[in-house]
């Protein structure tokens, strides 16, 4: 199985409120190199595939039309830029991969291609790009680009990936760089090409500014689960980050994704499905429960509202309670409304229902499959069930608490998975790049 560990370069990664826990280091560590290098070394010692960085542009200002709740509760505010953290982590590790979120809405593709070639060179081929179209409008208000409607963002993203891949794959021949000191030729100019892209959204001449890196194209991740997001993933993604509510309802989602990849002319198993699950694991039931109690005691209803409203692009304070959320036209992430529909397919989710769901601390139960909660044995049983029933290839583990949870994953969960023969005990020396870790030795480049 493949295991990534989720992180954000902000004080309370994913769980609003953990900055208040004096034992958790994320509140100040998120902006410290010492913190991130110790996290990366820990994950590498546990043979984890990759450290995954989520990221946003702009601030959560949809709830009540204000960023005050986001600032008050540290809802991905403040946040530093994770792409700039990665080279330092690459220097502190040798094998760990790094996946980083980069928006097709708020960066130009030429710059994206250069940034990822740089990361791929500096990490020796250990980098992945989590392709997102972004859901926050507020970045557009800061001059980062135009906030298009949901499906148009994906149309633009399709062309964006085409441009970036052309720069990575077609601009420099493998033997373009000769470094011939006698002849005074560094690169053969005929082997460095323009891409001459002229499309609906972009005009990019090229050539690419970087020579070919170990993987050329970084491993392509994707996370949006709307219909349009799934079509995009089926077309481009190699690793898909899914947030499914349980293995039974997850099975058709994974099957649909693979089927759509096949329809797009791809090998359906050349696409790794990773379930994104919060992990709350303790050495004993009592200690797992202590983590759950801490999580509940730190819960910030207002902070959660700020986050969900931003994700959905719906201000849950602005509509009458009985309004069905599906009827509200919103251009944010459609994945979350879909998630609600799967959580309770028989019901109409109203604004009041969603507010209640979001603000109420959700005590994790071992029976609630979306959270991997309990002892290492209980959690490993649950993961096996996800693999067998839903057909996932691995997990993007969201550690809870953010810092202590990383230790729990590495010191408690991974050894249990290794004992069961489900997870590697050493990195395969033949797999030198991140893509080879997912797809086997020799598969360094994006297929096709
Ligand atoms: C599990 C998950 C994680 C995501 N992580 C990020 C992220 O870190 N940054 C971001 O801008 N968008 C993130 N997104 C948003 C999407 O990737 C997507 O680009 C956008 O929300 C619209 O697509 P959708 O309607 O298909 O969700 C995430 C979405 C999901 C479902």
From TrEMBL:
All residue ranges annotated as the Luciferase-like domain in the record: 26-393
At the top level, the lineage of the source is: Bacteria
Known Pfam families for this protein?
Bac_luciferase
User: Which UniProt keywords are present, listed alphabetically?
Assistant: Flavoprotein, FMN, Monooxygenase, Oxidoreductase
Which family is this protein grouped under?
A: Belongs to the NtaA/SnaA/DszA monooxygenase family.
Q: What is this protein called?
A: LLM class flavin-dependent oxidoreductase
Q: From which organism does this entry originate?
A: Salinactinospora qingdaonensis
């Amino acid at each position: 199985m493949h295991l990534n560990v989720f992180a954000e370069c902000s004080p309370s990664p994913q769980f609003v409120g953990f900055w208040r826990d004096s034992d958790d280091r994320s509140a100040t560590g998120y902006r410290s190199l010492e913190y991130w290098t110790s996290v990366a070394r820990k994950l590498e010692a546990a043979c984890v595939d990759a450290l995954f960085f989520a990221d946003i542009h702009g601030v959560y200002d949809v709830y009540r039309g204000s960023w005050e709740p986001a600032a008050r509760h540290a809802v991905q505010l403040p946040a530093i830029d994770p792409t700039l953290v990665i080279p330092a982590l690459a220097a502190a590790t040798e094998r760990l991969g790094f996946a980083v979120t980069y928006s097709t809405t708020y960066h130009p593709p030429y710059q994206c291609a250069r940034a990822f070639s740089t990361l791929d060179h500096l990490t020796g081929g250990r980098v992945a790009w989590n392709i997102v179209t972004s859901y926050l409008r507020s970045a557009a208000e800061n001059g980062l680009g135009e906030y298009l409607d949901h499906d148009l963002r994906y149309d633009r993203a399709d062309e964006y990936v085409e441009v970036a891949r052309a720069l990575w794959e077609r601009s420099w021949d493998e033997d373009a760089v000769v470094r011939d000191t006698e002849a005074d030729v560094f690169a053969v100019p005929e082997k460095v090409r323009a891409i001459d892209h002229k499309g609906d959204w972009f005009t990019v001449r090229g050539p690419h500014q970087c020579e070919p890196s170990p993987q050329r194209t970084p491993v392509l991740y994707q996370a949006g689960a709307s219909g349009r997001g799934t079509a995009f993933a089926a077309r481009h993604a190699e690793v898909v980050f899914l947030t499914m509510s349980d293995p039974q309802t997850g099975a058709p989602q994974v099957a649909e994704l693979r089927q759509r990849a096949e329809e797009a002319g791809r090998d359906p198993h050349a696409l790794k499905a990773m379930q994104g699950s919060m992990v709350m694991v303790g050495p004993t039931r009592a200690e797992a429960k202590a983590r759950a109690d801490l999580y509940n005691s730190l819960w910030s209803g207002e902070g959660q509202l700020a986050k969900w409203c931003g994700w959905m692009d719906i201000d849950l304070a602005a509509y009458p309670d009985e309004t069905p959320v599906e009827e509200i036209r919103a251009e944010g992430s459609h994945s979350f409304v879909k998630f609600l529909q799967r959580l309770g397919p028989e019901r109409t989710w109203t604004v009041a229902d969603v507010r209640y769901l979001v603000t109420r601390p959700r005590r994790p139960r071992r029976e609630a499959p979306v959270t991997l909660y309990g002892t290492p044995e209980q959690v490993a049983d649950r993961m096996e069930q996800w693999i067998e029933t839903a057909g996932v290839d691995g997990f993007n583990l969201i550690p809870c608490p953010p810092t202590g949870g990383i230790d729990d994953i590495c010191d408690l969960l991974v050894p249990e998975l290794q004992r069961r023969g489900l997870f590697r005990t050493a990195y395969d020396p033949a797999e030198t790049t991140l893509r080879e870790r997912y797809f086997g030795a020799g598969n360094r480049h994006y297929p096709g």
